[in-house]
Amino acid sequence: MSKKWNRWTYAVVGVLVLLMAGLVYAWSVISTPIAAYFPEWTKAQLSLTFTICMFFFCIGGFAGGMLNGKIPAKLTVWISAVCFFLGFLIASRANSTTMLYLGYGVCCGFASGLVYNAVMSTMLGWFPDKQGMVSGILLFGFGFSSFIVGKIYQAVTPSGVGVAAWRTTFVMFGVILLIAIAVCGFFFVKPMPEDLAGLAVQKSEGMRKAVGIEAAPLEMVKDFSFWLYFAWAVLLSAAGLALISQASGVAGEVGPEVNPGTIATVVGLISICNGFGRLFFGGLYDKAGRMATMSLITLSFMLSVGVIILALTVKSFALIVVGFICTGFSYGGVNPMNSAVIRSYWGSKNYPVNFSIINMNLLLSSFGSTIAGMLYDRSGSFLSTFIAMIGAAAVGMVCNVLIREPKAKN
Questions:
Q1: Among 237, 229, 201, which Cα is nearest to 343's?
Q2: Cβ neighbours of residue 396 under 8 Å, at least 6 residues apart?
Q3: What is the DSSP letter of 105?
Q4: Whether the predicted pLDDT of 47 surpasses 70
Q5: Measuring CA to CA, which residue among 88, 72, 104, 376 is closest to residue 242?
Q6: 143/204 Cα distance (integer angstroms)
Q7: 215-232 tens-digit pLDDT
Q8: Which residues, at least 6 apart from 228, have a Cβ–Cβ distance to it below 8 Å?
Q9: CA distances from 128 to 36, 190, 217 (A)
Q10: pTM
């Protein structure tokens, strides 16, 4: 290779950056000291922060896609680092929800989406032969972030009425992200043709089974198969988020005698197994192709939710643990599919923008937790949520079966 570094160095850097960028997903933990400091703020007001964050994550991803090729990738990463710093700095001084929304919701959300797109667009370019596996490796860092950062945040941030330690932690996070992401930005280099010599012909089984087209964004969104895949991603992601939002309540209901610390650890298994699921299903895509991988993700998700329903029925905490592990693992397969399918079906030329479009599914799937809460409020039981999750996965399976590979241009 003509570049100074082995290509796996770029994958490692990508994981590190996404490990930092994914901390926005730790909002449920991060918001606890803030809620205690501002007891007059409602749960709905605090929850809106994360909704705004997810919206601007999508906007940041789209902006990153539009900037790709127009400015160097490292400059995009540096802009993200500055946005993270400003976001946490503004949020650290918040005395109103407006400042919190602007800092954490707008700035940090935008920064996360911007650098997320930069990582996936740049680092995947070094692995034309391992799209699924490397997508899984990169997204492992992003999925694992909330668990790791949540633990660190809890360790250094005491909570209580009038306790402002969270402000100091926010400033610390801002400075760390500014420096660390800025340094990593120097590694954001797109490969030259000679760097990939001998790799382009070594296509994986998954890539051989999905000979796609080079589609512009407008061409991609006119393809009915894209919308079938989009629907699958929304349904499975919404079901996964519904589980995450209800996990603590479910574990507490089945094991009322279990201490809160153990329940928190059991719920954390969902995030841990989600990360390992990204690795497994990403690698499986390279070997088995889209249809088999998506089918296995969907079926295993349905069976895993079935285990949770059984646990609720027989009041078995052990089965809840098994259900959380299996469901988190299955849910982990969705994100690497987004990356691998978009690149292999609709091409690498317009991948940065096309990838940001598929990530818009977050705007719809983020309502999964809201719907789960509504179902519980109406039925007074968690069973309604999990039955709905199986239904969503079943519809997703239909979408999966109907997807057709784009025909390659002659």
A1: 229
A2: 231, 232, 235, 236, 298
A3: I
A4: yes
A5: 376
A6: 25
A7: 999 999 999 999 999 999
A8: 399, 400, 402, 403
A9: 48, 12, 21
A10: 0.78
